[in-house]
């Protein structure tokens, strides 16, 4: 055996060359230099400035070196370096830090020999750090080749541990986490020994290079003879033998931990030449160079082999030398071939430098493997797998080999686990990796392994081989091709193509091979002579791997399509091909990436690869919806003809993805305009494709109903109905849901056309088939099926008896009763809601909205139908015909439901309305409202009585307690149906107290409430029962004088008093709480006004001022004060002006800018009202004028008059509302309150009260009259009748009143200082 140590000694020139390159990098990069200094001094800190405090000479020397590197003056640089050298040489001990500084100094002063010696001194002083962190490149170039015996010794010891399994242990370990604690401990000891060996040999060889090589040929070319031979490589034998006897396996990947080995123990070393020595070395972490790494080292000279005392070491060395020789031969052949051809180029951009190094290492390694494989092809004997085929971590044959930048190859899952544990170095060499991202699969090695496995189907017991398909007795691909050539002469061309695909490194040759194979396959298919031998030959793992490598590297669309075509054809016929492709995740990822980039034919291959093993959730994570939509958008004529249509594969995959509820899939389909293409799949010969298309279209209609018209227009339903007959329960239910959604169109006539198609299409009777399935269908599927069956039955004129109708309605009733299946209850109720057949363009039921529209509330109906674009002609039908058809269908459906068993449906709906399940309660409520409302339209057959008994109480309860006003309206619509029945009217009168409050709340927004009120009050003298007022609270404020004014402002009650006080009140329960008391005005607050905008409060006072207030929280804040220059009586405000009654005659109009003018100066005005720019004045002479503020014209509503005897009666109060003017005067002429039209000034009514009215308030329904005697009369605005009289707490006159915004509370103030409130009871 040759001695690599003696032969590979580098000369002085080589040493100086490498050390100079190392120092040049350090000097040119301050960051690298500081990083190295920090590692040498600070224990691995990344920034030198963060390190520990330096010894003073070191600090001065470092400062001098830095100054010299930055200096441009040679004299300054020279003097600085001289000082630094003296400082470092004066130190009593030499450290790695000082050695590195000296190497920099010698390099700057052009003394390369001294610089090289100082660098090599690092390997003597700190070998572990030098080879792993400081100068790993120097270690590889100058040291690594000399450590071959140690490396081989370590490899053999590790292999011995790995192969030494016991009977109880499994033959191979795939997962690192399965390693026992004992094994981990044993391997840690071996690793420590190996590190000690490397450290000691680094020290010894560094001394040798410094003392012998550099000193003998300093400055020469390296030809000077060396004084003594290189030192022997030392091995630690004592513990290694102990390990060989005790340990059985080795795994280099272990968690970092403390080693249980004494650092002070002496070690015995053995030279490969027979010498021995002792050394005591602390254990340190170091990288482990592998034997493979040494085979590609710079040293090429060979010499006699060393003699190693340990026989195991000798065997290992011999074996590795043989391998090296084979690799050398292979490398020369590959180099010869490389001169003529180019390597395969990757698809992506040129690799970065680190990736180029990695690829280069992988390529060299693969050339060695190729040579080994060529020698293996010459033998037919079953042999153990070559070491290069076995992962050093798992001891298994590679399934997915990856070659790192260090040249080492590992199983992908094993090395990934190593990196996931936080490691960033190669497990064998311990070199730091520039990137923890793993490279792509080593396909050359993978192909070699696949071919070797074909020739060696029985592997050794200790090696786990990938699963493989049983093959016929075929010795080699050549024998298969030769057998085929006897039948067809073109097989020779195919054989050559397969060889090129598997073995050629020229991309063009491999691509041509693919096209040749594809052409041959097409010819055999056309001749219908596709033999098993050809198929099995192409399905071999080596050939499949060749196809995959083409997918990774080719950019030719034709070649890529042909490759995908062949793999799809093979995968559809041979499951082993799918297993080969799915064994490596990166292969599937590559195919997916090509598919997403536009290789749409790959969808067929993806279907075969993913469908058997991947869950729908996995398919969603692959994010290929857009690519699948692109397949559907492509014309079939533009795609290859494959074993499965690409569109079929796309529909099947898309169906699985959408089954998971993937968000965004429906949007992609609708925007991609492929709904029509999916509808075409309903006619497919494949039942699986039809069902998948049904599922996709169903999802689309539910999430985006705008596509429903397209589907209904283009769908052929006969194949779908055939799929129903032969499908399972899940498929049948999906088809039923699809058909049910299909008849939710926004045109009744079109719905009926689709129902006729469903009823008449198909080989079998659709209704009979549905009925049979209804009798055995699961409970949760029954309601939808029953709804569809009932609609089909009503297409014909309803008959007295129909088994389809009876069974369908019985199904609804039984499902609603079955509380053990709440989902079926909700489904039944929702199905009934949809039966009226009114839908918007999105397929949403309009039943509830249409009922609200019937009750006079159209907002909800308009919002649901505003997206409907087609409101005119559709399919030749006018809108009127559509509405008439909808009404006829509505009546037919309601009649069928209510007539079944004399209204049995009402009983179950009433129970559903009591449910705590909000969905069930709401659906039952809408269904019951619809059916009861339809009783008003249908002929009376006595069913209304059954509905009243079951539902009247429930509707009253909802009307009374519902918080949603629309729910109240629906309940009221149903209650109105009972008013046409004398018994129903009597029952409603019993609930009058419960419903009158709700009627008052709805009277503003719903015209139906007025109709009900009218019916309930028919034949009565008054409506007192509807307008009862209950006293809420009374407060004594007599210390502040009269309550001159009262107003509601943002849910607060504001009162103005005669002493100038303003008070803010809030009502809680039956108590008025005083929140704030203000004394901004000095005299009585005569007016409180809230303008129509409602954002401010204005107060007018007898102190000649008006103030503007805002409310913050519960308190008022004065914003502005206006000097009105006169007493302010009866202030009214509009926009930028205010009007008030001064102390004298006329009316003052005051602008907030300060200007004012006097109007109507000939009259003494008593009261004012301002509405829409018109000022209404009630005067002391009983006249009423209307003044247009824009033109200042005055017109009379009532002329005044003078009495010869006695006082003239003034107009005490004036209110304007809804175009009517209400005036209060003396009752002497028989009518204290007169009502005038604001438009023509004619009198339209009067209130015959005998009270002396002093103040008045008008709401939308009532008129409140406050009298001089302390009583308040309440009158009905519509009927002009008194409905109630209430009495203030004292007999003092009522001088101010206000009604809250909801018109539920009345507040009044009296002349003796009391504030009192009443509420509608």
TrEMBL record:
Query: Which UniProt keyword terms apply here?
Result: Transferase, WD repeat
Could you say which EC number(s) this protein's record lists?
2.3.2.27
One GO biological process term: protein ubiquitination
Cite the residue spans of the region called Disordered.
Answer: 248-338, 347-366
Q: Where are the WD repeats?
A: 1078-1111, 1294-1321
Q: Which InterPro entries match?
A: ARM-like, ARM-type_fold, ARM_LIN, ARM_LIN_2nd, E3_ubiquitin-ligase_LIN, LIN_N, RING-Ubox_PUB, Ubox_domain
Q: Where is each U-box domain found? A: 384-459
User: Does this UniProt record's set of keywords contain Glycoprotein?
Assistant: no
Write out the biased-composition intervals (Polar residues): 292-306, 357-366
GO-annotated molecular function:
ubiquitin protein ligase activity
Catalytic reaction list: S-ubiquitinyl-[E2 ubiquitin-conjugating enzyme]-L-cysteine + [acceptor protein]-L-lysine = [E2 ubiquitin-conjugating enzyme]-L-cysteine + N(6)-ubiquitinyl-[acceptor protein]-L-lysine
Q: Annotated pathway, please?
A: Protein modification; protein ubiquitination
Decide whether keyword Nucleotide-binding is in the record.
Answer: no
Q: One matching Pfam family, short form?
A: ARM_LIN_2nd
Q: Where is the composition biased (Low complexity)?
A: 314-334
Name of this chain's protein? RING-type E3 ubiquitin transferase
């Amino acid at each position: 055996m040759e001695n690599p140590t003696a032969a590979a000694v580098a000369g002085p020139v080589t040493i100086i060359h490498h050390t100079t390159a190392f120092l040049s990098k350090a000097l040119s990069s301050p960051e690298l230099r500081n990083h190295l200094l920090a590692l040498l001094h600070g224990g691995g800190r990344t920034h030198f400035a963060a390190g520990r405090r330096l010894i003073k000479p070191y600090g001065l020397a470092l400062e001098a070196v830095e100054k010299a590197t930055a200096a441009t003056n040679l004299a300054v640089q020279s003097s600085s370096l001289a000082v630094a050298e003296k400082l470092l040489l004066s130190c009593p001990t030499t450290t790695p830090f000082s050695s590195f500084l000296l190497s920099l100094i010698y390099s700057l002063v052009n003394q390369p020999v001294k610089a090289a010696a100082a660098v090599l001194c690092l390997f003597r002083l700190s070998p572990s750090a030098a080879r792993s962190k400081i100068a790993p490149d120097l270690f590889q170039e100058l040291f690594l080749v000399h450590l071959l015996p140690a490396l081989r010794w370590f490899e053999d010891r590790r292999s011995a541990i790995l192969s030494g399994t016991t009977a109880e242990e499994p033959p191979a370990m795939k997962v690192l986490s399965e390693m026992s604690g004992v094994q981990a401990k044993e391997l840690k000891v071996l690793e420590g020994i190996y590190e000690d060996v490397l450290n000691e040999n680094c020290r010894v060889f560094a001394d040798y290079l410094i003392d012998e090589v550099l000193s003998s040929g300093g400055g020469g070319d390296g030809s000077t003879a060396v004084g003594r031979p290189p030192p022997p490589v030392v091995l630690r034998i004592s513990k290694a033998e102990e390990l060989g006897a005790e340990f059985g396996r080795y795994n280099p990947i272990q968690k970092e931990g403390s080693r249980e080995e004494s650092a002070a123990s002496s070690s015995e070393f053995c030279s490969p030449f027979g010498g021995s020595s002792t050394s005591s070395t602390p254990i340190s972490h170091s990288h482990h160079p592998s034997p493979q790494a040494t085979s590609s080292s710079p040293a090429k000279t060979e010499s006699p082999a060393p003699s190693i005392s340990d026989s195991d070491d000798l065997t290992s060395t011999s074996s590795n030398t043989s391998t090296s020789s084979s690799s050398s031969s292979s490398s020369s052949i590959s180099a010869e071939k490389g001169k003529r051809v180019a390597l395969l180029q990757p698809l992506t951009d040129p690799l970065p430098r680190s990736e180029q190094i990695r690829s280069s290492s992988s390529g060299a390694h693969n050339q060695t493997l190729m040579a080994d494989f060529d020698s293996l092809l010459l033998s037919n004997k079953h042999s153990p797998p070559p070491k290069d085929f076995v992962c050093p971590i798992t001891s298994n044959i590679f399934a997915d080999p990856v070659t790192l930048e260090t040249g080492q190859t590992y199983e992908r899952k094993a090395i990934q686990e190593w990196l996931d544990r936080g490691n960033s170095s190669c497990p064998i060499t311990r070199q730091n990796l520039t990137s923890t991202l793993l490279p792509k699969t080593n396909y050359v090695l993978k192909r070699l392994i696949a071919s070797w496995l074909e020739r060696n189907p029985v592997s050794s017991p200790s090696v786990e081989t990938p699963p493989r398909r049983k093959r016929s007795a075929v010795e080699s691909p050549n024998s298969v091709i030769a057998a085929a050539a006897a039948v067809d002469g073109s097989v020779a061309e195919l054989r050559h193509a397969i060889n090129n695909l598997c073995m050629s490194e020229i991309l063009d040759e491999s691509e041509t091979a693919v096209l040749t194979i594809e052409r041959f396959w097409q010819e055999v298919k056309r001749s219908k002579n596709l033999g098993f031998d050809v198929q099995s030959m192409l399905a071999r793992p080596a050939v499949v791997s060749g196809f995959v490598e083409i997918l990774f590297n080719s950019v030719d669309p034709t070649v890529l399509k042909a490759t995908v075509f062949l793999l799809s054809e093979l995968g559809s016929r041979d499951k082993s091909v799918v297993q080969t492709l799915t064994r490596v995740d990166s292969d599937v990822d590559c195919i997916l990436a090509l598919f997403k980039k536009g290789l749409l034919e790959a969808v067929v291959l993806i279907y075969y690869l993913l469908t058997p093993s991947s869950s729908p959730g996995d398919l969603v994570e692959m994010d290929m919806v857009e690519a699948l939509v692109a397949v559907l958008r492509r014309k079939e004529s533009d795609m290859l003809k494959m074993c499965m249509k690409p569109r079929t594969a796309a529909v099947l995959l898309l169906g699985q993805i959408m089954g998971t509820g993937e968000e965004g899939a429906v949007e992609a389909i609708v925007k991609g305009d492929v709904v029509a293409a999916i509808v075409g799949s309903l006619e497919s010969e494949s039942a699986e494709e039809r069902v998948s298309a049904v599922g996709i279209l169903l999802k689309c209609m539910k999430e985006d109903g705008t596509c429903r018209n397209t589907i209904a227009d283009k769908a052929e339903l006969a194949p779908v109905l055939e799929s129903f007959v032969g499908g399972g329960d899940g498929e049948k239910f999906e088809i039923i849901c699809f058909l049910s959604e299909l008849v939710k169109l926004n045109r009744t006539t079109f719905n009926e056309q689709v129902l006729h198609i469903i009823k008449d299409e198909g080989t079998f009777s659709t209704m009979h088939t549905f009925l049979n399935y209804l009798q055995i269908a699961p409970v949760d599927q029954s309601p939808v099926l029953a709804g569809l069956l009932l609609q089909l039955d009503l297409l014909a004129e309803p008959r007295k008896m129909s088994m389809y109708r009876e069974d369908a309605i019985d199904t609804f009733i039984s499902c609603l009763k079955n509380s053990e299946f709440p989902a079926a209850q909700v489904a039944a109720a929702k199905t009934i809601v949809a039966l009226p057949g009114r839908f918007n363009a999105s397929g949403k039921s309009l039943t509830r909205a249409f009922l609200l529209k019937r009750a006079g509330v159209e907002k909800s109906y308009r919002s649901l139908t505003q997206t409907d674009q087609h409101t005119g002609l559709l399919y030749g039908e006018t809108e009127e015909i559509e509405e008439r058809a909808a009404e006829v269908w509505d009546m037919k459906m309601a009649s069928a439901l209510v007539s079944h068993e004399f209204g049995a449906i009402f009983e179950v709906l009433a129970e559903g309305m009591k449910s705590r399940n909000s969905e069930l309660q709401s659906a039952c409520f809408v269904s019951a409202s619809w059916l009861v409302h339809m009783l008003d339209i249908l002929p009376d057959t006595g069913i209304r009585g059954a509905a009243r008994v079951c539902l009247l109480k429930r509707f009253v309860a909802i009307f009374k307690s519902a918080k949603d006003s629309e729910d109240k309206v629906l309940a009221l619509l149903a209650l109105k149906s009972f008013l046409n029945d004398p018994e129903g009217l009597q029952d409603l009168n019993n609930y009058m107290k419960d419903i009158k409050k709700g009627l008052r709340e709805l009277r503003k927004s719903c015209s139906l409430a007025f109709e009900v009120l009218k019916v309930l009050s028919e034949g009565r003298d008054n409506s007192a029962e509807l307008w009862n007022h209950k006293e809420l609270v009374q407060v004594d404020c007599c210390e502040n004088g009269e309550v001159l004014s009262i107003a509601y402002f943002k849910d607060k009650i504001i009162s103005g008093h005669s002493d100038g006080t303003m008070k803010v009140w809030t009502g809680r329960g039956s108590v008025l709480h005083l929140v704030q008391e203000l004394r901004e005005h000095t005299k009585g607050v005569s007016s409180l006004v809230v303008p129509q905008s409602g954002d401010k409060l204005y107060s007018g006072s007898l102190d000649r001022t008006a103030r503007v207030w805002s409310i913050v929280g519960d308190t008022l804040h004065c914003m502005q004060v206006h000097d009105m220059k006169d007493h302010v009586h009866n202030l009214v405000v509009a926009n930028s002006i205010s009007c008030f009654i001064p102390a004298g005659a006329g009316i003052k109009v005051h602008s907030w800018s300060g200007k004012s003018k006097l109007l109507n100066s000939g009259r003494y005005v008593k009261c004012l009202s301002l509405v829409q720019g018109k000022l209404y004045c009630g005067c002391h002479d009983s006249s009423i004028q209307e003044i247009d503020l824009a033109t200042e014209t005055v017109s009379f509503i009532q002329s005044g008059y003078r009495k010869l005897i006695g006082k003239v009666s003034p107009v005490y109060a004036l209110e304007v509302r809804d175009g009517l003017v209400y005036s209060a005067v003396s009752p002497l002429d028989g009518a204290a309150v007169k009502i005038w039209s604001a438009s023509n000034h004619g009198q339209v009514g009067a209130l015959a009260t005998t009270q002396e009215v002093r103040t008045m308030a008008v709401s939308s329904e009532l008129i409140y009259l406050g009298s001089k005697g302390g009583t308040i009369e309440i009158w009905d605005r519509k009927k002009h009748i008194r409905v109630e009289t209430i009495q203030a707490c004292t007999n003092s006159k009522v001088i101010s009143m206000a009604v809250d915004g909801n018109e539920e509370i009345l507040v009044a103030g009296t002349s003796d200082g009391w504030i009192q409130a009443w509420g509608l009871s």
